[in-house]
Amino acid sequence: MTDHHHSAAGASHGPDEPAMAALLDLDAEVLHTFLSDVTSTLAGLTRDEPPRRIVDLGSGTGAGTLALLRRFEDAEATAVDRSPELLDHLLAKARDRGVAGRVRTVQADLDDAWPDLGAVHLVWASVSLHHLADPDRGLRKIFELLRPGGLLAVIEMAGFPRFLPDDIGRGRPGLEARCHAARAEAHAEHLPHLGADWGPRLSRAGFAVEVERPFTIDLRPPLPEPAARYAHASLQRLRSHVAEKLSSDDLATLDHLIDSDGPDSVLRRDDLTVHAERTLWAARRP
Predict the structure, then answer these.
(1) Alpha helices, DSSP H only, in 53-111?
(2) Per-residue pLDDT, 187
């Protein structure tokens, strides 16, 4: 989904594919315990009949695809994304991990015609449904894809990850909060479904919602090594969304933080944290 995390089914892509791929990989690396918890929940829900055919919609660089193949050792996965670059990146990672034979990729824009994906046991849609122009149509399409008894896992974000203390030692306190407020304003226009409650929508599409579980990720110092690079990549992406909405002082402070050489650079700070909130909905086709 392109907006922060995965490249989404219906998101627009620009020339920043390599930066996006790097950010998605860092996200998967830093938040790997979250992915493990989610796939563990799905394993519990499919204990009687583990999924053999999995589809990852809006797969990005394959964090979900690879986590699911690790969890379900007899499964094969189809990764669907509109970005051929991100799908190539996903295949390279699958080769590195020795699972390329269990992955196929399909390049498609899910706001247009859906590819024929066959009958599927598990559909994974992580931070991708809010990018669709018509998510209700998307859910109906997923319902048709799934075999009776099949499972849909929807993961969405409650806002974007946060990293900085309120007072970073320069500029006016509260910089990150103001950046996120500006970003939320931009998203209200372009991504009206971001932050939606997917439960009622899933029910309307015919699914039986079995799990709705919020996850809070709260990492404190000392952070794992990739965390500073994750913060840096995230704040660079945030800047591209909010630069025009910030005061010149705030923009100067933000630029100082993401200037890799500065002493206050996020790459060198010892007061970073990682705070993120995501929700899993697991819903079954009756």
Answers:
(1) 63-71, 84-96
(2) 66
